[in-house]
């Protein structure tokens, strides 16, 4: 199969198009023929060695954790899926090796969900990792209709999902963003506030008693969170482990198929949209990574295989 892979840590120069054997399909797994795969910052951070202290690596590495495609083959004891089914997955494995920037990838059934009918292949590929991150943080904090939620980074890849998901849970949402993104944040369903100096005062002007839930999707905002949080509030971060010292939770997204199916339901009901900024062919993965590294793309970057 065609795949983009690397044999050592480094920048985009280590990526190369190559031919690899089809992966074996173990019990409880399916082989997915990849239609589209989404780029996430974690992909190039892993390639640079950023997660070396956490995860074992087996070279050659095919990067990529987000996928949308069709079931090519089912392993032993997989009654939930059949060949030809359209599926999506956050396909992270327990070690770094066989990812989604290839023609085929194996995925454990626990990480799979059926593709939402309302989404294109590109949109569906952009949903799993970022959508699950936002969904799992907000539901872990018990977000509901009685809450006012402050989302740090509301215009970002995860934050934009967070706004929509919090609204679907019935919460009022305040979202931090640069002024140029305020219209976008407002369109997603949040009340925008500018980040930076004076943020705490601006949040308090909107929510005098403080938000009951704070979701940090950017890091470096722990001081503001503690300053504005309601006395009985809950908070969590995906980027700042120091929240553990102030009663918060540090969230690392899990590949849970049932959660992904709920995101699909929200998409099909019109409550969740997946913005796609740009698509690239598989051979241009390095260019897609470089665009992601710029950090200002208003939507998902998609690889069409």
Describe this structure in words.
This is NADP-dependent oxidoreductase. Residues 10-303 form the Enoyl reductase (ER) domain. Pfam families: ADH_N, ADH_zinc_N_2. It is a single chain. The chain has helices spanning 41-47, 121-125, 128-140, 157-168, 182-188, 199-206, 222-228, 257-268, 285-294, and strands spanning 2-5, 16-19, 29-39, 57-62, 66-74, 86-90, 96-98, 104-108, 112-114, 148-152, 172-177, 191-194, 213-216, 234-237, 249-250, 276-281, 300-304. Strands 3, 5, 6, 8, 9, 16 and 17 form a 7-stranded mixed sheet that branches. It contains 9 helices and 17 strands. The termini are close together. It has 305 residues and is α/β, with parallel strands linked by helices. The chain has 2 domains: 2-127 and 274-304, Medium-chain alcohol dehydrogenases, catalytic domain (Quinone Oxidoreductase, Chain A, domain 1); 130-250, NAD(P)-binding Rossmann-like Domain (Rossmann fold). Helix 9 links the parallel strand 16 (276-281) and strand 17.
Task: Count up the domains.
Answer: 2
Basic shape = globular
So, the CATH homologous superfamily of the largest domain?
Medium-chain alcohol dehydrogenases, catalytic domain
Strand content: 25-35%
Query: How does CATH name the architecture of the largest domain?
Result: Alpha-Beta Complex
Counted beta strands: 17
Individual helix count: 9
Taking the sheet with the most strands, its summary is: 7 strands, mixed
CATH topology of the largest domain: Quinone Oxidoreductase, Chain A, domain 1
Helicity range of the residues?
A: 25-40%
CATH first level of the largest domain: which class?
Alpha Beta
Structural class by helix and strand composition: alpha/beta
């Amino acid at each position: 199969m065609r795949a983009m892979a690397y044999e050592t840590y480094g920048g985009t120069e280590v990526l190369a198009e190559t031919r690899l054997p089809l992966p074996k399909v173990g019990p409880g797994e399916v082989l997915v023929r990849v239609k589209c795969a989404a780029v996430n910052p974690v992909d190039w951070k892993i390639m640079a060695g950023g997660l070396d202290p956490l995860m074992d690596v087996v070279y050659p590495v095919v990067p990529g954790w987000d996928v949308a495609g069709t079931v090519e083959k089912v392993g032993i004891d997989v009654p939930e899926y059949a060949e030809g089914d359209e599926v999506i997955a956050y396909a992270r494995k327990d070690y770094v090796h066989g990812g989604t920037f290839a023609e085929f990838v194996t995925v454990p059934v626990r990480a799979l969900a059926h593709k939402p009918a309302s989404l294109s292949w590109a949109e569906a590929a952009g949903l799993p990792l970022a959508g699950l991150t936002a969904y799992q943080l907000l539901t872990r904090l018990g977000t509901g209709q009685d809450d006012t939620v402050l989302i740090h980074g509301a215009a970002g890849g995860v934050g934009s999902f967070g706004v929509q998901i919090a609204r679907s849970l019935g919460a009022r949402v305040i979202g931090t963003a640069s002024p140029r993104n305020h219209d976008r944040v407002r369109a997603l369903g949040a009340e925008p506030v500018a980040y930076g100096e004076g943020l705490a005062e601006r949040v308090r002007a909107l929510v005098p008693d403080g938000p009951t839930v704070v979701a940090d999707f950017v890091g470096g905002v722990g001081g503001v969170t503690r300053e504005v949080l309601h006395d009985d509030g809950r908070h969590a971060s995906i980027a700042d482990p120091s929240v553990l010292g102030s009663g918060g939770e540090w969230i690392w997204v899990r590949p849970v198929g049932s959660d992904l199916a709920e995101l699909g339901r929200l998409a099909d009901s019109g409550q969740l949209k997946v913005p796609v900024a740009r698509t690239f062919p598989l051979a241009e993965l390095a260019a897609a990574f470089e665009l992601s590294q710029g950090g200002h793309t208003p939507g998902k970057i998609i690889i069409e295989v």
